[in-house]
Amino acid sequence: MSPPDFSDAGLVVLGHGTTLDPQSGTPVFQHAAELRRRKLFNEVREAFWKQGPRVKDVLAQITAPRVFVMPLFISEGYFSQQAIPQELGFRGEGQGSFSPILRHGARTLFYCWPVGTHPSMTAVLRARAREIVEKFPFPRAPEPKETTLFIAGHGTDKNENSRQAIERQVELIRALNLYAAVENVFLEEAPRIGDCYEIAQTKNLIVVPFFISDGLHVRQDIPVLLGEPERLVRQRLEKGQPTWRNPTERKGKRVWYSASVGTEPRIAEVILERIYEAASQG
Description:
By secondary structure, the chain is an alpha/beta fold. It has nine helices and ten strands. A five-stranded mixed sheet has the order 2-1-3-5-4, sandwiched between helices. A five-stranded mixed sheet has the order 7-6-8-10-9. The longest helix is centred in the middle third of the chain and has 15 residues, at 121-135. The radius of gyration is 20 Å and the shape is elongated. It starts with 8 loop residues before the first strand and ends with a helix.
């Protein structure tokens, strides 16, 4: 069966964004550029929630009769399911569930589910874990059965759904019986990222940040929580160097730390799957 025709449609790849770190928007531009290159849509635009170009301004500039808003977020949490849908008119204040389709005259807006909760993210996480030990095998690449895989997330008390995407991926990868153990850890909830050394029963640890961008959380906060001296991390940041050396010995463990999942090239395919789902509802 041929894929749907989106030649009349606009696509907005929407990121969180921040004015504190210019690298936070990199995945949005990366995946928007890839989808623009494929020429599937009439127009592909980048937009953000916390920095420019702002999503409402971008939507106002698009004249296509169909527009898909694709939140490049990890979870069905506060921003992707409450703040942004309310701001764009999909959801009323205090409203529970909402329709992801919004019609304004001759134009229809489609609000997609975030990438992080798509089933294909299991393959993305596994690829990140596999690639980091293959790239840095010294003294040798550990066997998965000798390794504990940690999926590191943000966590928040603003929305109880925030951690569910990570916990679901832990369950899915654990069920594959590839690693000695698969666990979740968080920046702002228990179990904390620094607890991984006590949790792991193996010498080898792989930590994959379940974040969209390689922003300050990934490049600074998590390495410090894993035991890298903050002064050294800041020096490496200033010099544009990796803030974690793979593998690093800490507390009797050998730790590999990967890039975030959001810059993995397979994310472009996840975006398309989410758009296909949204289109099928219209």
